[in-house]
Amino acid sequence: MGRFVLSRDIAAPAARIFRAFTDAEVARDWMDATGIRDLSGRLDRAGTHYTLVIFGPWRFRSTVVRSEPPTLHETVHKGPLGASAHQVATLTEHDGVTRLELETEYTMPLGALGRWLDSRWFEATRGATSREFERLIELVAPSLA
Predict the structure, then answer these.
(1) The CATH number fitting domain 2-144, selected from 3.40.309.10, 3.40.190.10, 1.10.600.10, 3.30.530.20
(2) What pairs with residue 57 in β-bridges?
(3) Closest Cα to residue 103, out of 74, 71, 66?
(4) Each residue of 48-81: pLDDT tens digit?
(5) pTM (2 decimals)?
């Protein structure tokens, strides 16, 4: 299992940043996903299930675990071949600046082989995640881009 935390102070209100996790089109954009489908409810409600389509066969059955607008959004994702992720976004606003901390724990598919591959290419995986994080910031605070 891997884990990483990305954080940034963003000159935007917490509610605008929180929307990046709860508006399906915005979330699809910054997550670099093909789509968010089969929504059972709203993304700002705990218990909502949906399918996160990354590309091709990579579909993750996802659930909103906790949602405390506009300060916390937690999801779990179960994908093919044993892939999974648990993501917690924590937002703390102070004087017009919001601290976004995005903690991700993940399991690579294919068991031991997946762990070995992850250990060899972790930087590439982290690079893609950092690009997604930067896209999220661009969407919520376009004047900073």
Answers:
(1) 3.30.530.20
(2) none
(3) 74
(4) 999 999 877 779 999 999 999 999 999 999 988 7
(5) 0.84
